[in-house]
Every structure is written in C-alpha cells, then in structure tokens.
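Input set for joint prediction.
Command: fold jointly, output tokens.
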Amino acid sequence: MAEFAVELRDVVKKFPNPGGGEVRAVDHVTLRIGHGEFFSLLGPSGCGKTTSLRMIAGFEWPTEGEVCIDGEAMGRTPPFLRPVNTVFQSYALFQHMTIFQNVAFGLEMEKASKDEINRRVGAALEMVQLTGMDKRKPKQLSGGQQQRIALARALVKRPAVLLLDEPLGALDLKLRKEMQLELKALQHQVGITFIYVTHDQEEALTMSNRIAVMDKGKALQIGKPVEIYERPNCRFVADFIGEANFLTGKIKEVDKDNVTVALNNLDFELVGIPIGTLVAGQSVAVSIRPEKIRLAERPVQGIGGTSEAKNYFPARVITSAYIGSDTRVIVDFGPGVNLKVWEQNKISTLDPRAHYTQGQELWIYILPENALVMPEG
Amino acid sequence: MTVQETARSGEKKSILGKIRESSRLQGLTLISPTMLYLSLFMIIPLLLVIILSFLARGPYGNVVYRFNFDNYIRLIDSLYLKILWYSLLTAALTTVITILLGYPLAYYIARVSANQRSILLFLILVPFWTNFIIRIYAWIMILRSEGLLNTFLLNIGVIKVPLEIMYTPTAVLIGMVYEFLPFMVLPLFASLEKIEMNQLEAAADLGAKPWRAFMRITLPLSLPGMIAGSILVFIPAMGMFVVPDLMGGAKTILVGNLIRNQFLTARDWPFGAAASMLLLLLTLVFTLVYTRRAGFGEEYLV
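tokens >
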C-alpha cells in the first residue's frame, strides 16, 4: 500500500474559454490524502473543487501535473479502469433501471456471479437501510432515498476511494444534517477514503478529518477543521469559514509572539498574533471572530492572563438582537468601524437590565490570540 | 364576468358559465375543431370504404349495391398474398435501414455544439423544400444505366458493365430509405438529446467500457425515439406507391400500387376498397404487436 490514497502533484487544468483564450480551473494544486481519511474540498462555486474531483475520477485529465491513486500515476487512465467510485451531485441514477439493477450495475461490469451480485447488492441496500426497495424505480423514491441508492451503488464496488460531489446539496436542511452524521458513521464503518466536495463550510467542519479550502483554482489552506477555523492563513479563508470582523492597520511593532497594530482611522493600538512573517510598517488585516470578543461594563485588570489593560476599547451598542442561544450585538468602535459581537446567553433571565440596549456605552476586550494579524488582501 | 353578471345573463351565457366551471367541458371544447375535421374527412370516408369493400363491380366499372364477401375471397390468392408479403418486407427493411443509417447521424447531431446542431437539423429539413416526385426523379438520374453513378464507376474503372439498379427492388429500397430517413432521425435525435452526460459518466465510473455503456444506457434510453421513428416510417412505407411506381418499374408492385391500380386503372373500386381494408388491418396489427412488445416508449421517458 502506497503512502497516500490519492495524491495530486502540482496539477493544473485549463479549459478553453468560449470567448477565446483559456481558463485555469485548477492552478498548481498539490494534495496528499491518506488512507481512510475523510477529506473535504471546500470553496465557493467555480473554485475548482469539482474539477479536481473529476480529475481523480478520470472524467477530466490534468493539463499539467499528475494524479496518483494508491501511488500509481493515473495519466490518461479512463474512469472505468480506476479504483474509485463517484456519488454524483444529482445522483445520476439510471432512471430506466430498478433500484436493484442500479446497484448491481457496477458488479455486472466486473462480471461477478449472480449469487455474489445478489448477496452484495442485498448487503449494500441493508447498509443504507433501503432493504425491500429493490424493485422500485428511482423516480418512485424520495430525494434522501435516491441519495442513499447513489451511495450504495458506489460503495457496492468496494472502491479504494469514494468521491462525493456535493451529495447532500439537494436535500432539505434537517435531512442534510442527519445524512452528514450517517455518512460520517458509514465512512468509519467501511474504512474507505472519502473525498468530499462541498461549498457548505459547516458540513466540511462537521465531517472532515482535513479540509482543503479552495479559491480561484488554488488550494489556499489545507488542514484540520480546528486549524482552518482557528488559524486561517489568509483573509479569504478567515472570511469564507465562519464569520469574522476585519480591521485594517499598519504593523507598529513586532516582538517574539505578538504584533502591535496601529488601526487605520482609529486612535487605538491592537495586540494580536501574526499569521506568517510580518515586518514593521506593513499594511495588515486583523481578523476577529464575533464570538471571541468579550463585552464588559468596565475594564477589568488581569482578565485572560494579561496584567495590563491591553486590547480594551470603549464602544457603544448600535443594535442588539436576541436569537435565543446567543445575543448578537453590533458595536460602534470608532468612526465608521463596527464590530459584530456574539455573546452566549449563559444565564436564563427575564431582567431587562441583563440585555443590551441601543446606545449603551461599554467596553470590549479582545484576547491577543483572538486577533489574527495577516497581510492585507 | 362576475358571479352576479353570470346569474343575470340568460340561457346562452349560462353555457359559457358551465364551460368555465368544468374542466371536462373545456377539454371537449378545445378538441372539437379537430374532432369535427377528423370525422368529416377521415371517419366518414373510412366508413364509406368499409361499405364499398362489401359491394360489387358492375360491368362498366360502376358500383353495384349487392352485399357480398367476394372481394375478400379474391384477395386470398397467392398473387395478392405475395404482394402483401413483399410490401411488409419492404416496409420492414426500410425501417431497419433507416434505424441503422439514422442512429449514428442522430447521435452525432445530439452531441455537437448548439450552433452546429441547428445547422445540421436545418440541413435534414432542406430536402422537404423540393417536391418529393422531383427528388425521386433526381435519384433516377443518379441510378439509371447511363446515370451519374454508373458513369462515375465506369470512368474510374471499378466496373466494366453498367450496374442495373433502376427498376429493381434495390432501387425501391433506396428511394424509400431516402424518403423516410428524416422521420427516423428527428425522433431519435429528440430522445438521444435528452440523455444527460452524467448517466454515461456514472456508467463509466461503475466500470462500464464505452460499448457496454452504450448498450446498457444510451440504447435503452433512446428506445422511445426509435419506437416513434419506426412507427412514423413503417406505416407510410406500407402504403407507399409513388416510389415503386417510378423506381420499381413493372416488376415491383406493392400493396399501395395494387390499391391505386384497382381504383384508377381497373376501375374496380370494391376490390380496391377490400385491399385497402386489408392493408389497414395489417398495419394496425403490426403496430399493435410492436407497441405491445416495445411499448410506445412512454415508460422510458424521464
């Protein structure tokens, strides 16, 4: 067994542009996906995630670079000779065949015996909890059931890698959440490498071992969900995953762990942690997650382990929205600079004084490790 | 019209009101022009032909109103049965050849870019701008002994003696296939165009080589078009008499020619009517058996 289940080595894919010239759908992407990993390709539409998946499946061939499956360079190997199977976005079930025939199709192509086909199709349908549906046609099933059939049809082949192209995109929210957990459990059970394409960041965070965040054909950051969320390596990733406030400024001072930023248009200096190498005088963006900002009536010395009152700023409440689990506050932080602040409602109370009111003056506090300072742009 | 107005208006208006309320009456109203047309120009003439087929021919080609089965009994004759068999064979062969020629063409048209597709579909329809008889004469110019084809083949030395194609069953088949090919290509194209690329990708993904993917996915999904095309070709091919007349000569006589000759040349209308009824019955039986076995293809439609 090779070191990686799937490897993309510096892969480029160009498509001819209808208006002349060419488009780079995938631009020098290198991925190394381990055996048994649940790996997600996450990004907005047109970021190259589906093209990358299609190159692994064999529906497209790279313009440059190499796709390797289990250490073997695929070159121009056609899809029917690759040890991978795909769950398509629109399921692509064969409408003229029954459920049984759909699931059996891949095994018939392998020239499996009738007994083996019956046994394995039965087991696959049982795995996706659709036993007894085998004589129906795909159109007679609900969206969620069709989705499971697509899954069973691909998994019955026992592929080395299962490719999933936004498989839950057509389902409603509740069913999607259920299927997320089910898919994750299923992956654990069969132990197959899953490569999962999605534009839904929550889905990717919930299910994946690792995520590659893609934009404009490039893989911007590859890492575990917690790394992607807590330490995004650029403004795009910080913005695309979850919510973030962005402040701009110039580096004033760089010391061992922290950087001090003079914020633009404000009289404040903010201490944060550097993402990448930064030098004094450089223009930077500071990313702060709304749930990581604290609101306080007055500055408190020593909070968060710091001895001095760094990163304390006066602010004024613009709006406050109570949404049950959280209160979402927008505070005015200086001329034209607003911050989103989410505070969990940890205490159950009807006392109006416990909730923020418009125009209320207060202090906000940002722990240095919650302020990520990164090159602007 | 408001409810009050409807209530106030008289008998005439209330019929309109009834139509507005009943979707069944609306449907009947909408199909009534077609129904009227069909009953005037199809059902009544058909009934006349049925009646005519049970009457007799008078000595001067007139119709004698004497009920009898003689016309049908006369039809059970090896001469006429041979003509029928030959007509069936020609129509069936025409259908098969138009499928074989039309399928790759329809497949190609369904797969090219939208721009090229409209040009190709346009080209398929261009021959209809010229009268059918004139196009058949063009084929005669090509196929006859000293025609284009023979001159060409003689000049490049492939043959020494001109090929005798005209006035043979082969010439009839060439003419029929030519005439009916668009009626096969268009419905085939319509159903091939509907097949989504991801169906073939899924088949390849599951291990199907291109040929097997074609047999298991493309072919079954294009069956509705093939069935529709076969019906559109087979039925008119069964009654065709222009092509065998012009290209088949005296030797090739189809049931269509037989009927025409009875009505126009022999002036035996009752016998011609009986032959018509036989043709109608045969076509009906064949179409029924065919669609029973293959369906109209509606169950494949997605």
